[in-house]
Design a protein that fits this description.
Strand 5 (108-118) and strand 6 form a beta hairpin. The protein has helices at residues 72-80, 89-104, and strands at 25-27, 37-47, 54-64, 68-70, 108-118, 121-130. The strands form two sheets. It has a four-stranded antiparallel β-sheet with strand order 2-3-5-6, with helices on one face. The chain is α+β, with helices and mostly antiparallel strands and 145 residues long.
């Protein structure tokens, strides 16, 4: 049987998606209650501003939305937009927090960035934002069985 030559796949004329700093939002479907949205971003990359070498981090984001929520694909494209930028870990983490707060004005935001080990040192940066006057509801402790 003759061997079939594989067909070469052509690249699209326009990429299906591209990095963007534009965070899209949508109305909170349940603004009458507090609830937590959690995002897990295990493959964040940017560049070290001193060496140009890649830096890698795992971001965990928790949001208690107010009137708006951030759209997931735009958040993905936003994180991707840092890939070729040089910035210190602390600056990147705070910039992401500032940009999300500017886009959706959440009741609460917490970002935890676990930066992978570089030169024998791992960096962990935590940033929080609380809307003025917002207080979380008391935690409910349910009896165990």
């Amino acid at each position: 049987m003759a061997r079939k030559t594989p067909t070469r796949r052509l690249a699209p004329a326009v990429p299906p998606s591209a990095p963007s700093k534009d965070l899209q939002v949508f109305p909170n479907p349940a603004p009458e209650r507090d609830y937590v949205i959690r995002f897990d971003v295990p493959e964040f990359t940017c560049l070290c501003p001193l060496t140009g070498q890649p830096d890698f981090a795992h971001f965990e984001i928790e949001i208690v939305p107010d009137r708006r929520c951030v759209e997931l694909k735009s958040l993905k494209m936003y994180f991707w937009s840092f890939r070729n930028e040089g910035a210190f870990h602390e600056k990147v983490t705070n910039t992401i927090a500032d940009d999300i707060v500017a886009a959706i004005a959440p009741r609460f935001l917490a970002i935890r960035a676990d930066w992978f080990v570089r030169g024998g040192i791992g960096t962990h940066v935590t940033v929080e934002h609380r809307q003025k006057g917002w207080k979380p509801q008391p935690k409910v402790e349910l009896p165990s069985a």
